[in-house]
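FORM 7B: Structural annotation worksheet

SECTION A. Query
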Amino acid sequence: MRLLRGTTLLFGLNLLDALLTLVWVRNGIATEGNQLMARLLEVGDLTFLAVKVAIGAVAFVVLLRWSNLKLARYGLAVALAIYIGLMGIHVFTGLAAFGLISETALEDMAFWTKTVFAAII
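SECTION B. Predicted structure
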């Protein structure tokens, strides 16, 4: 149970990402960047949430089951870094939605985020 706090945080961030994505997409503020998840959004909100939560739950169980492995610890660290970055995107999306930052600043941030994620992956 070495990674319990980290995996719980990851699951929580995954759920928060799903809920914020629903808010932004359903209000026409943003689009889903992941094409598979975008298709699930077309099917319905509950389908999207169920798959998103199921993916988070599987990751939670796998990371806890093999928490003694170095790979699990590194994988958790990488996943948390990615999700924390995604939360930053959600913050900027919210600020833009409320008119607190310009559309240009949001587009610049989106460009650099895509560039960084493309370099990582």
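SECTION C. Observations
The longest helix spans residues 70-97. Residues 39 and 48 are 9 Å apart (CA to CA).

SECTION D. Sign-off
Analyst initials: ____
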